Amino acid sequence: LWTPAEIVEDAIQQIRDKVGSDKVLLGLSGGVDSSVTAALLHRAIGDQLTCVFVDNGLLRLNEGKQVMDMFARNMGVNVIHHNAEDRFLSRLEGVQDPEEKRRLIGNTFIEVFDEEAATITDVDWLAQGTIYPDVVESAQSRSGKATVIKSHHNVGGLPETMKLKLVEPLRELFKDEVRKIGLELGLPYDMVYRHPFPGPGLGVRILGEVRKNYADMLREADAIFLEELHRYDWYHHTSQAFAVFLPVKSVGVVGDARRYEYVIALRAVETLDFMTARWAHLPYELLETVSSRIINEIPGISRVTYDVSSKPPATIEWE
Ligand code: XMP
């Protein structure tokens, strides 16, 4: 069995043998797989790597800043930060259907990424953070063994349009190995063990039409939930936890007046494979703190609910 240090050594050698002195482009999302890919490629080929980080306006609070601090400022990786919030939000205007939202977000991502790629001269390689389970999953869906329930946009799509050769240094690794080599490469524990975040981001956590003010409220609520999960030491005892924005108005009383404001649902699950999941039995005290903080700190929210549905039949995401 190989140690993380040996896996890193071997991967670095393979990357160098493969790309030589060519330039490599990587879409950095801030998730575990693309972050570890970035750290590994940077260790192997330094300045030959350029990362593109697309801010679609549907990220968690301060995510763009965190990615830039970590990779560009701390590690010295070349990262282009493209703020495309307006473009994504204007495309999503009036769109209600979840799969249509996913498709639009995915296509807009490819469009923005392509434009950035075109500004970098002489790139030959596209790096992707594909890991072994992704390879198996896409092989199964090609052969029709598995039903593709949702269109996950973060695998595939890019190479065809870009005519770049692919380098996928994590292709033979399982998630736990990817995490271990992330730590070995010096990435912080909280980054390497963070919960998964869907490619379409908050776009599928705002039910129905996506609007900027909804996304702003949801970001605040989500940040409060995650902060309290960490403070109560529950974050790493859940597999995924997040807030969902419900665009319905429910009544609240402020002073003598009745006010009709939006609802936030909290979702936290425990799972091994994300195919089935149990809702997390969070302590009431934690839920109480989160609920009162969300209602008191976020204007526009008057009610918080906790999702007690397991998967199946309920999915983890609400859309
Ligand atoms: P569901 O909601 O299907 O989610 O129970 C299972 C896991 O997949 C994630 N998910 C997505 N990831 N693009 C992604 O990259 C998507 O469109 C998407 N939809 C769901 C979800 O967050 C959970 O981890």
Verbal overview:
The protein is α/β, with parallel strands linked by helices. The protein folds into two domains: 4-192, Rossmann fold (3-Layer(aba) Sandwich), CATH 3.40.50.620; 205-306, GMP Synthetase, Chain A, domain 3, CATH 3.30.300.10. 43% of the residues lie in helices and 20% in strands. It contains eleven helices and nine strands. The chain has helices at residues 4-19, 32-45, 63-74, 85-92, 98-119, 132-142, 158-162, 175-184, 189-192, 212-231, 284-297; strands at residues 23-27, 49-55, 78-83, 123-127, 165-167, 240-254, 257-270, 278-279, 301-306. It has a five-stranded parallel beta sheet with strand order 3-2-1-4-5, sandwiched between helices. Helix 2 (32-45) packs across helix 8 (175-184) and helix 4 (85-92) packs antiparallel against helix 5 (98-119). 36% of the residues are buried. Residues 144-157 have low confidence and may be disordered. Xanthosine-5'-monophosphate binds next to loops.
Keywords:
319 residues; alpha/beta; Rossmann fold; GMP Synthetase, Chain A, domain 3; 2 domains; five-stranded parallel β-sheet; four-stranded mixed β-sheet; 11 helices; 20% strand; globular; binds xanthosine-5'-monophosphate
* Average pLDDT: 93
Strand content: 15-25%
What is the H level of CATH, i.e. the homologous superfamily of the largest domain?
HUPs
Number of strands: 9
User: N-to-C SSE series?
Assistant: HEHEHEHHEHHEHHHEEEHE
- CATH topology annotation of the largest domain: Rossmann fold
